[in-house]
Amino acid sequence: MLNFLPSPLVGLVATLLLVLNVLFWVPILLFFSFLKLVIPLKQMRLLIDPLLLRIAEAWIAGNSGWMRLTQRVQWDVQGIEGLDYRSWYLVNSNHQSWVDILVLQHLFNRRIPLLKFFLKQQLIWVPIMGLAWWALEFPFMRRHSEEYLRAHPEMRGKDQATTRKACEKFALIPTSVMNFLEGTRFTPAKHQRQQSPYKHLLKPKAGGLALALNAMGDKFQAILDVTIVYPDGTPKFSQFLNGKVRRIIVRVRSLPIPQQLAQGDYAGDPAVREAYQKWVHQLWADKDAQIEALKQLGMKQV
Predict the structure, then answer these.
(1) Which fold has domain 73-300?
(2) Vertex 119, ends 262 and 219: CA angle to 5°?
(3) Angle between helices 42-70 and 7-38 (to 10 degrees)
(4) DSSP secondary-structure letter at 178?
(5) What is residue 162's predicted lDDT score, i.e. its pLDDT?
(6) Could you report the average pLDDT of every consecutive run of 10 residues in the chain (302 residues)?
(7) Which residues does 128 contact at the CB level (< 8 Å), separation at least 6?
(8) pTM of the entire structure?
(9) Alpha helices in 72-157 (DSSP H)
(10) Phi, psi for residue 39 in degrees, rounded to 5
(11) CA 50 from centroid of its chain's CA atoms
């Protein structure tokens, strides 16, 4: 363990190992993705897609390796026992920091199928990583403001079409569809601007979840509702690399798929949309109360 080193040196080592891990696995990932691209047959997809997932899992395992080597995190985790690697899951979590991604991947890697995130379109231009996300067929979404959509009504529904197309691919082999209901990372400024009714969460957006359930509700074994709490304050990614995150609390609940909602028309039926909003509100109210309780628990453990 290298966490006895000064913080800047820990950060340097962690960053170097992170970059080396990326540079090792991404070219391998791109080679097989290119092979699938030039031979666009379903048989080739069924052969290569599982291989791409194994490569991604090895990449994540490498990240877990340098995290164990450089970080001194006290993990308090409950609810990840008994998960099925061969099933489909819809995973939902609160979102505070880029560190959330490493936390989720670290805890779920090889316990459930690879997490597939819905990403902002701009992220495809991130050096190296954008290509890796493209190779793994992470859906890229063009999120527009309501003002933009009023001016360009032809763009309305584009993200829904992207979501449906992605879910059709996800249905071919076991996949975990990752959804951040808040749609963005929590910050006090965003919380105040939204006038969110929740103490620790932004307002949830049910549309993406509704589309995923409508497209794949018969595939999903369960909804994994994840709550992440950093008792010592939400860390920046650089703070995590520097070994300054000491405690992470994670709780996972396995929830049944609401079949009545999954079979409804969220976009076209106001009654279904209202039912979704009520269901999501209750989910978020429970999560908000859980976060408050976990923060209090963290304060007592100091």
Answers:
(1) Glycerol-3-phosphate (1)-acyltransferase (3.40.1130)
(2) 30
(3) 170
(4) E
(5) 66
(6) 82 96 95 89 83 95 96 95 94 96 97 88 83 85 58 59 72 87 93 96 88 84 96 95 95 93 83 91 96 86 65
(7) 22, 23, 26
(8) 0.90
(9) 99-108, 129-135, 146-151
(10) -120, 75
(11) 20
